[in-house]
């Protein structure tokens, strides 16, 4: 794994953890992968050294420093920015083949329902999977639309969480 891929994976796991979509031990595993890939900071080493038993208690305190040292963003638990980053992370997982399109829409729909404007189309597509046998669409057609939406979200949400000082 490249250092950039490890950085993205750590950021994604941190975002998923901040929204309850990932366990603390998964964040620790991502920190270990980042070390193996060549990223190395004191905070990252401490985070990677957590045992599974310690992770649930320590990640909350250790993650912000580790991410800050790497220039990554630590989203507050249950924040709107964290929700957007978690959606992007799930889109990355789907596009990498870690989730099927159906699993992706189900997780988004289950977590956010029809309440989050950013993911409204995915919730609608999840509903479409449920009624395929009654309509004229196929699984492949809905899968293609979900994949296109995942690509859009993965691209849309890669902008910085905070504005930069660079003039436009």
> Could you tell me the mean pLDDT?
90
| Cα gyration radius (Å) | 17 Å
One letter per element, helices H and strands E, the order comes to HHHHHHHH
Q: Spans of 5+ residues with little confidence (pLDDT < 50)?
A: 158-168
The main sheet comes to: none
- What's the end-to-end separation, in Å? 34 Å
C-alpha geometry: elongated
Explain this structure.
This protein is mostly helical and 168 residues long. The chain folds into two domains: 3-69, no CATH class; 80-156, no CATH class. The chain is 67% helix and 0% strand. It contains eight helices and no strands. It has helices at 3-18, 24-37, 42-48, 52-69, 80-95, 101-112, 120-130, 139-156. Helix 3 packs antiparallel against helix 4 (52-69). The protein is elongated. The two termini are 34 Å apart. Residues 158-168 have low confidence and may be disordered.
Keywords:
mainly alpha, 8 helices, about 0% strand, elongated
Quick synopsis:
The protein is mainly alpha-helical and 168 residues long.
Write the layout of secondary structure elements.
Blueprint: H1 3-18, H2 24-37, H3 42-48, H4 52-69, H5 80-95, H6 101-112, H7 120-130, H8 139-156
């Amino acid at each position: 794994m490249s250092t950039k891929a490890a950085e993205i994976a750590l950021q994604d796991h941190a975002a998923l953890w901040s929204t309850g979509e990932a366990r603390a031990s998964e964040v620790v595993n991502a920190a270990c992968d980042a070390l193996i890939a060549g990223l190395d900071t004191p905070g990252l080493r401490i985070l990677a050294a957590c045992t599974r038993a310690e992770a649930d208690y320590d990640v909350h305190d250790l993650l912000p420093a580790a991410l800050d040292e790497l220039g990554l963003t630590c989203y507050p638990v249950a924040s709107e920015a964290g929700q957007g980053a978690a959606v992007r992370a799930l889109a990355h997982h789907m596009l990498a083949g870690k989730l099927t399109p159906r699993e992706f829409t189900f997780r988004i729909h289950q977590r956010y329902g029809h309440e989050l404007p950013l993911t409204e189309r995915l919730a609608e597509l999840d509903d479409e999977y449920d009624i395929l046998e009654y309509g004229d669409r196929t699984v492949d057609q809905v899968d293609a639309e979900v994949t296109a939406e995942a690509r859009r979200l993965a691209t849309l949400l890669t902008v910085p969480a905070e504005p930069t000082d660079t003039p436009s």
